[in-house]
Design a protein that fits this description.
The chain has about 375 residues and is of the alpha/beta class. The protein has helices at about 5-20, 25-30, 50-65, 70-75, 85-95, 125-135, 165-180, 210-220, 235-250, 270-285, 320-335, 345-355, 365-380; strands at about 150-155, 190-200, 255-260, 290-295, 310-315. Strand 3, helix 10 (about 270-285) and strand 4 (about 290-295) form a beta-alpha-beta unit.
C-alpha cells in the first residue's frame, strides 16, 4: 500500500505528532478514530511514539483496501497539515484502486500487482522461486530439521529494484496472514511478518552492531529493545547480539523475515560487518519454530561465503530493462482471457515506457507511474 520510503515518512510524521502529546494513548485514539478502527489501543505492547506509529501503520496496511476510502486515508487526513510531503501519498490512496489485471495466481509470490493498489512488481522469477523455497509449508508441531535456504542475498547496481524487494515480502506476509485466518487456531501456522532495517546512504559509520540489533528489535515491536552493552571482544559481542536479536524474534512467536538494506555502504566497518555475518550464521543454525529468514540487500560477497551453499539463496540484479518488462507486458496485454499479444505489440509497449525514463534517481518512481498508467489504459480499454 505504501512504498518503503512513504511508509517511513508516514511513521515519522505520526511519531512526531504523538510525541507532542502528554497522553499518547489519547492522541493515538484521536488520530485513528477509535470508533471505526479495530486496533486495540487499550493496552498496547509498545511504548515509544515511533513504536506506536509502526503499530498503527501496520494495522492500516494489513486492512489495506477492505474499506473505501481505506483507513490509512482517514489516518493521514487527521494529521496536521505541517507535512506537505505526505500530500501525494494522501491523494494516491484516497482514490479507488484500479481493477486487478493479469491472470489469477494461486500463490501470492506470483502476483503482477501488489495488494491490488497499482504497484507493479516486475518479473524477478529467480526471486520468486527463492521465496517459495525459503518458506515451504510446515505441519503444526513438526520438529523436522529445516534444510531450505535461510539467507537471501540480493546484489545489483542502483536503480535495479533491490530495495523494492521489500514490497513483495510485505505483500506475501499480508496474503499469508489472511489465508491463515480460516484455519483453526491450534493448527494455524506462525504469523508471517517483515522487519526492515535500512542503512541510510553514507551513514554506515554510525551503524554499529548494537544500533543495528536495537533497530531490528524495534522493527519487530519487541518488548525489550535495549541491546546488551559492549562487554566482550568484537567477535564474542557479535555472537551475543545475534543471539539477542533471534531471542527477540522468538518472543513474538511470529515467522520473521529480517531485512537489512544498504550493506554496500563503504563506511560500514569490520565490526559491523562481523555482526551481520554472525547473524546470518545464527539464522542458518537456528532450529525449531517459528522460522527466521534473513535478507541481505547489497551484501558484500565474502560475508556469507562460509555458510553452507544450500542454505543461502542469491539474486543478482541488473538495471531494469527489456528483459524485465517484456514478460510483464505479455501478461498484462493478455489480461481477461484475451489471446496472447504478438511480440511486436509487447516490444512496442516496452519501448514506449522505457524511452523517456531518466538514468538518475527518479528512474524507478517514474517507471512505477508509467506502468500504472499503461495498466489503467488496458483495464479500461
Amino acid at each position: 500500500m505504501l512504498t518503503v520510503a512513504e511508509r517511513e515518512a508516514v511513521i515519522e510524521a505520526i511519531g512526531l505528532f504523538l510525541q507532542d502529546h502528554d497522553d499518547m494513548r489519547a492522541a493515538a485514539r484521536a488520530l485513528v478514530g477509535d470508533a471505526q478502527f479495530g486496533l486495540d489501543l487499550a493496552d498496547p505492547p509498545v511504548r515509544s511514539p515511533v513504536q506506536w506509529a509502526r503499530a498503527i501503520v501496520a494495522y492500516c496496511e494489513a486492512d489495506a483496501w477492505s474499506h473505501l476510502p481505506p483507513w490509512l486515508f482517514y489516518l493521514l487526513s487527521n494529521l496536521p497539515p505541517r507535512w506537505p510531503e505526505l500530500r501525494p501519498v494522501f491523494e494516491r490512496i484516497k482514490a479507488e484502486p484500479p481493477r486487478w489485471v493479469g491472470p489469477a495466481v494461486s500463490d501470492p509470490v506470483d502476483v503482477l500487482w501488489l495488494n491490488r493498489v497499482g504497484m507493479p512488481f516486475l518479473d524477478r522469477r529467480v526471486l520468486r522461486d527463492h521465496l517459495r523455497h525459503m518458506s515451504p509449508p510446515v505441519p503444526p508441531g513438526s520438529d523436522a530439521d529445516d534444510t531450505s535456504p535461510a539467507v537471501l542475498v540480493i546484489t545489483g547496481p542502483d536503480r535495479s529494484g533491490r530495495s523494492y524487494t521489500v514490497e513483495l515480502l510485505h505483500h506475501l506476509a499480508r496474503e499469508r496472514r489472511a489465508a491463515a485466518m480460516i484455519i483453526p487456531k491450534p493448527q494455524r501456522p506462525p504469523e508471517p511478518a517483515v522487519a526492515v532495517v535500512t542503512i541510510p546512504p553514507k551513514m554506515g559509520s554510525s551503524m554499529n552492531p548494537e544500533r543495528l540489533a536495537e533497530q531490528f528489535a524495534k522493527a519487530m515491536l519487541a518488548d525489550e529493545v535495549d541491546a546488551p552493552v559492549d562487554i566482550a571482544t568484537p567477535d564474542r559481542m557479535s555472537q551475543y547480539l545475534s543471539q539477542w536479536v533471534l531471542e527477540r524474534a522468538g518472543d513474538t512467536r511470529k515467522e520473521w523475515w529480517l531485512v537489512l538494506d544498504g550493506l554496500d555502504d563503504a563506511d560500514l566497518d569490520d565490526r559491523t560487518m562481523g555482526f551481520v555475518g554472525k547473524l546470518a550464521e545464527q539464522v542458518v543454525l537456528r532450529t525449531g519454530q517459528p522460522r527466521v529468514r534473513l535478507v541481505l540487500i547489497g551484501c558484500r560477497p565474502p560475508l556469507v561465503d562460509a555458510l553452507p551453499a544450500e542454505r543461502v539463496a542469491r539474486e543478482q540484479l541488473g538495471e531494469i530493462g527489456e528483459v524485465d518488462l517484456e514478460p510483464f507486458f505479455a501478461q498484462l496485454l493478455a489480461a481477461g482471457g484475451s489471446p496472447s499479444p504478438p511480440p511486436e505489440a509487447v516490444k512496442l509497449a516496452v519501448m514506449l515506457v522505457l524511452d523517456d525514463l531518466p538514468s538518475n534517481g527518479d528512474r524507478l518512481p517514474l517507471l512505477n507511474r508509467a506502468l500504472r498508467e499503461k495498466a489503467a489504459q488496458v483495464c479500461h480499454a
